[in-house]
Amino acid sequence: MKHQPAYKLATVSRLTGFSPALLRAWERRYGFLEPGRSHGNQRLYSDDDLRLLQYVRGQLDLGRSIGEIALSGRKQLLAEARALEREDSGGASSLGVGTAGPAGLVSRSAAQELADCRRAIVEGALILNGVAINGAFDRAFGIVSPDLAIREVLEPCAREIGELWSSGQCSVAGEHLASSVFVHRLQKLIEMSRSPDPKASQVICAAFPDELHQVGALVLCYQLTRRGFLVSYLGQALPLEELERACEMAQPRAVYLSVTRQVLFLTHRPRLLELVARQAKKIRFFVGGSGIQSADEELEAAGARLWIAGRSATDLTNDFLP
User: Among residues 191, 190, 252, which one has the least CA distance to residue 220?
Assistant: First the structure.
């Protein structure tokens, strides 16, 4: 390799959003990753591996499958990644690792436009201008793919507006206005992505009991729908007794629950633990959102997978699919 390996597996996972299990699987299956080994036999990834993965992330967001991408081979993928870097940086090569923006995924001009869209949406919430919010979304979805528009505009704006509301800088009305636009956009995308196959695997998505925020749950619905699953969205503040009843009736392949506040997770955790213990032999359970602040060995031992705070719902990977 041209570069001395420098990044451990956990670091690469954090920087790219791909889980360690998925990275190991891609290494075995497709061969476009070439990690070295430490004296303790731990994987060590090079700058080229990281550059390649960032490029793969962008291609996945544009709707390509990993199998299709991998057919290009490592050499071609690296050449394409470097060409995109040069375009983004005006000729200077820069990895830009760890940045929150779309560097390495879209051109510099598009990245600036997306930043302008984010500012317009947040400002629209602050001054109760729904026309401005919708106009900014129209621009964002016209610039990049729906996946990128969600990850680079919708989700960051939802977080920022929520933080402004919590600090008293955004009114309840402004937060509700923005949320209604977010929800409407996501529902339209879900409807357009819905599989016509009545035999598709069924999954259930819902917001935690007493959880009124549904943007995260709807992003999950969209990601699962576009992957071919038949998604039943059971809405906000779903009591766990009703969820279990729905599981008995529908027998879904998996259940996805979203929770944004840790206090809600801790309050309803004992009941969730009982439900998972009863149903996990038949149904896979996934629980995620900003309300999940750390690992929960007891809940995971019962059969649930946790999507820890800080990971975007658009980063749904194969290890979080049923």
Answer: 190
